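Example for tutorial group B:
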């Protein structure tokens, strides 16, 4: 079954930003992408590519998202193979039409001490205040 570009962007974001975190925290990362999509009327690709929003984005330097995803899959060992499969499953779930996140989480970071509304694992999430 082909995977959409938006699913690839969301899956790689979950993998790169929350790999090793509990599944619930990985879902919250995907929901941040979804909440921004819904709020801004943009695709996951457009959201993830917004300048300065996701730490992994500058690292791909013009590569296609499918080549980045395929490289992750081919180089993944043991737990990382499971991690990219989990990230893809989460992305598929969260990007389903009609999916309701049930929250308005809009930002996340991993810096202890910065303002946040929700802590999950080692990640800190904040609501959209607009």
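The residue assignment follows.
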């Amino acid at each position: 079954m082909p995977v959409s570009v938006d699913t690839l962007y969301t899956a790689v974001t979950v993998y790169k930003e929350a790999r090793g975190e509990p599944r619930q925290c990985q879902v919250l990362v995907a929901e941040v992408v979804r909440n921004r999509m819904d709020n801004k009327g943009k695709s996951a690709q457009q959201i993830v590519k917004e300048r300065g929003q996701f730490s992994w984005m500058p690292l791909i330097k013009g590569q296609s998202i499918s080549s980045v995803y395929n490289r992750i899959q081919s180089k993944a060992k043991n737990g990382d193979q499971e991690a990219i499969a989990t990230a893809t499953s989460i992305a598929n779930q969260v990007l389903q039409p009609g999916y309701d996140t049930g929250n308005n989480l809009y930002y996340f970071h991993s810096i202890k001490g910065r303002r946040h509304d929700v802590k999950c694992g080692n990640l800190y999430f904040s609501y959209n205040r607009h």
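The first strand starts at residue 105 and ends at 109. Compare this with the pattern of hydrophobic and polar residues in the output above.
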